[in-house]
Specification:
This protein has 4 helices and 10 strands. The protein is an alpha+beta fold and 262 residues long. The strands form 2 sheets. The chain has an 8-stranded antiparallel β-sheet, sandwiched between helices.
Length: 262
C-alpha cells in the first residue's frame, strides 16, 4: 500500500505533465490556425489574380483590330496636309493614332459621294513597337480592306518628290483594281503608304497617287528636325499634277524590279 507521502510526491509531477500537454496542444492549435489563415490568404490572392487575367481579353477587344496598343489621339494636332487642287477637293477624315511605345500614324481618307473609301494616305512614324520582321505589304493589304489572306504583287514604280514609290495590287487582278503604294525612309524612320481607287485606268490611278504624294506637305514637325529636313528637300523636287507635262513622270509598269530602300 502506497504511503501518503509517495502520493503527495507524485501529484505535482502529473500536474506538470498535464500542463505541458495542454500547452503543446494550444501551440498546435495556434499553428494550425495560422496555417489556415495563410493558406486562405494565398487562395484569395490566386482568385483575384485569375479574375484579373480573365478581364484581359475584354481589354484587348477595345483596341483597334489588328493593331494592339494603338489608340485614337483626339488631342493631337494634324501634322500633315494634302494641298487642294480645287474647292471640292477635301479630305473626308483625318485620324491620328498613337502607340504607348512611341509610334504615331496620321491617316487621311477620302470617300465618294456614297461614302465609300476611294483613297487613303498614311504617314507612320515608327516607335519601339515597329516589327522589322512583319512584311510591310501585310499592313498595306489591311489598309486596302483586303485582309491578310489576299496577297499583293508589285505593279511598278512611280516618281514623286520623295523619290521612287513602289506600287502594289491584289495578285491576279485586272486593269480596274485599286492600287496600293509604299515608300520607306530609314532616316527619319518613316513610312508613307496608302491606296487609291481614283481614275478609270491604271495610268490614271498611278497619276492620282503621284499627284497626292507631291501635294503632301508638312504642317508641324514637333521635335523631329530630320522630318522637317526630309520634307524641305522633297519640296525642291516637287512637280505639278499634269502627267503630260513630263515624259518621265510615270515610270513604265514593266519596271517592277525594286532595288534598294523604297
Amino acid at each position: 500500500m502506497q504511503s501518503p507521502e509517495a502520493s503527495t510526491a507524485v501529484s505535482p509531477t502529473r500536474t506538470a505533465i498535464q500542463l505541458a500537454l495542454l500547452a503543446f496542444a494550444d501551440e498546435v492549435v495556434g499553428t494550425l490556425a495560422r496555417l489556415t489563415a495563410y493558406v486562405g490568404t494565398l487562395a484569395l490572392f490566386a482568385i483575384l489574380a485569375l479574375a484579373a487575367l480573365g478581364q484581359l481579353p475584354d481589354l484587348r477587344d477595345d483596341e483597334p483590330a489588328g493593331r494592339p496598343g494603338w489608340s485614337v489621339a483626339d488631342r493631337s494636332h494634324p501634322a500633315f496636309a494634302v494641298s487642294r487642287r480645287d474647292s471640292s477637293d477635301k479630305t473626308a477624315s483625318y485620324t491620328i493614332l498613337r502607340h504607348p511605345e512611341g509610334g504615331r500614324r496620321d491617316v487621311l481618307r477620302w470617300t465618294d459621294d456614297a461614302g465609300r473609301p476611294v483613297a487613303e494616305l498614311e504617314i507612320y512614324r515608327e516607335g519601339a513597337e515597329f516589327d522589322v520582321t512583319r512584311p510591310a505589304t501585310a499592313d498595306l493589304a489591311a489598309q486596302m480592306g483586303l485582309g491578310t489572306a489576299i496577297a499583293l504583287e508589285q505593279a511598278g514604280l512611280i516618281d514623286s518628290k520623295f523619290g521612287p514609290v513602289a506600287l502594289f495590287r491584289p495578285t491576279g487582278t485586272m486593269e480596274g483594281a485599286c492600287l496600293g503604294y509604299l515608300k520607306r525612309s530609314e532616316e527619319p524612320a518613316l513610312q508613307i503608304s496608302g491606296f487609291s481607287c481614283q481614275g478609270d485606268s491604271l495610268p490614271a490611278r498611278r497619276a492620282a497617287i503621284a499627284c497626292t504624294l507631291n501635294r503632301l506637305t508638312l504642317l508641324a514637325s514637333g521635335n523631329e528636325p530630320r522630318l522637317a529636313e526630309l520634307f524641305a528637300h522633297a519640296e525642291l523636287k516637287r512637280r505639278g499634277c499634269d502627267p503630260a507635262g513630263s515624259a518621265d513622270w510615270l515610270l513604265g509598269a514593266a519596271n517592277a524590279q525594286l532595288r534598294g530602300a523604297l
